[in-house]
Amino acid sequence: RGAGRVPQIDLFLHSAGGQTEIPWRLITLIREFCDRFAVLIPAVAYSAATHLAIGADEIVMGPFSELSPVDPARTHPLLPHPKEGERPEPISVQDLRHCVQFIKDEINDPSPEAMAAIFAVLFEKIHPLAIGAIQQSYALSRLISTKALSTHMTTETEKGKIKQIVDALSNEFFSHHYRI
Fold this sequence. Notes:
The protein is α/β, with parallel strands linked by helices. The chain is built from six helices and seven strands. The strands form three sheets. A three-stranded parallel sheet has the order 1-2-4, with no helix packed on it. Strands 3-5 form a two-stranded parallel ribbon. Helix 1 (about 20-30) packs parallel to helix 2. The chain is elongated and about 60 Å long. It starts with 5 loop residues before the first strand and ends in a 9-residue tail after the last helix.
């Protein structure tokens, strides 16, 4: 506020990630104070930091700079606990999605009864409400990616390109630890 509105803000970004909800708040706050927003990534900008980076007009990276997919990992009180009294293990949205897809692809009996039996066993390990929370995180991540890109890409003319980038960052790298 003290500096007022400036032509450009360059953000030095080095982060292993964080909460999915934070990048959109930062993108909109920074854009309130500048006409052009750039991020400088000397090393890592993973997960939520990748969300923040794609909300910039320009991303400056060097030969050792890395982004990552933005599929969130989520903890939930109803997820399995590794040991009594410990926090639940976070589950990646992609881990759960690929588990379900593997089951669909590999079972010999795709009947509704067989699928119901498989999902009943899955629900014994992972509570359905936790699965819903994981799906909610996935939808939120895609929404934030779309909104971040829409701050500097025209949704009317570049809608297909925005969707392509969102799909890639959300689905196409198959591991949260894949480095871009």
